[in-house]
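Reviewers of the previous submission asked for a worked example of the structure-prediction workflow described in the proposal, so we include one complete record here. The input consisted solely of the amino acid sequence. No template or homolog information was supplied to the procedure at any stage.
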Amino acid sequence: MVTTPQEPVYVIGAGPGGLAVAATLRARGVRAVVLEKSDAVGTSWRGHYDRLRLHTTRRLSALPGLRIPRAYGRWVARADLVRYLEAYAEKHELDVVTGVEVHRIERAGDEGGGWVLHATGGRRLTGRSVVVATGFNHTPTVPDWPGLDTYEGDLRHAREYRNPEPYAGKDVLVVGIGNTGAEIAADLAEGGAGRVRIAVRTAPHILRRTTAGWPAQRSGILVRRLPVPLVDLMGRGLARFAAPDLSAHGLPRPTAGLASRVREGAIAVQDVGLVAAVRAGKVEVVAAVEALEGREVVLADGSRITPDAVIAATGYRRALEPLVGHLDVLDPRGRPLTRGPRSTPGLYFVGFANPISGMLREISLEAERIARRIARTAPKRK
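From that input alone, the workflow returned the following structure tokens.
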């Protein structure tokens, strides 16, 4: 009998989300081809700063079908996670094609007729289903501050930061107090920067990574499905004895509740050194950045400072508009309207949420659900 080759499921992106989906599809007998624009898996993780460790536990961060080695410790280092992703692709014998960037996805005829992917080198690929896994932190973004284009100082996005060595003895301003900004500020303070300030617009919730051995992630898993007002109330009670109070150092407790802030897209900061640095005066909290003038940075309280370097830990865009913006599948903020198996039939998104229960854990769950749905209708490999 002659078997006619079947169109594969195309997975765009060889980060944790893309690899997890490809592995779970392969386990169900569905051929998946992972398209990666760079030359290796886990590219975004390769580019993060040296100090970075997962804020979620090793056991709750593994992808389907392969545990993270115990030797990597409870809080897995960036470099070890990259090694894990390489081992994951090898163990599951994933079909990863590097050096191919998908620019646009279009429907192939009527709804339900599959998809056409326009890719590097004029490639035109067709697949029955497509999974977009290009990453939550895709394109670095810097606010359009007045004077940005003419700023004469050293300004770079946190994406370019690796370690404190180039900043030894320098006056550094970190802009933004999410997990990245908080950790970079602590890294600079511990690594020999002459002066470190962190510009804060909205005070974050700051949590201990663990309390008496209990990781904050497990609490996030337990409360994730509870009503937002209830979690806000619980969070306020917990903060009184389990969260640091830095009001005396210019960082008051936030007014909005923990779950309310998560709904707005602001995940709580897990403390890995910032609190101690602020209390010791090694990191100074200053007002938000309002404008840039010459070499000066103008702050919201009217003060002006002239740091040697500015590191903008100001977040990322999903940058999905060129790829799927014309398909009416994105919300006004450029995020997928739906994720996981509830996505547009044949077009799925994985890894576009940052929940308090842990991104990698959520990716694993989404990947399993997407694979189950695709496998119900996709032809099996011969």
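The first helix runs from residue 16 to 27. We consider this example representative of the routine output the project will generate in years two and three.
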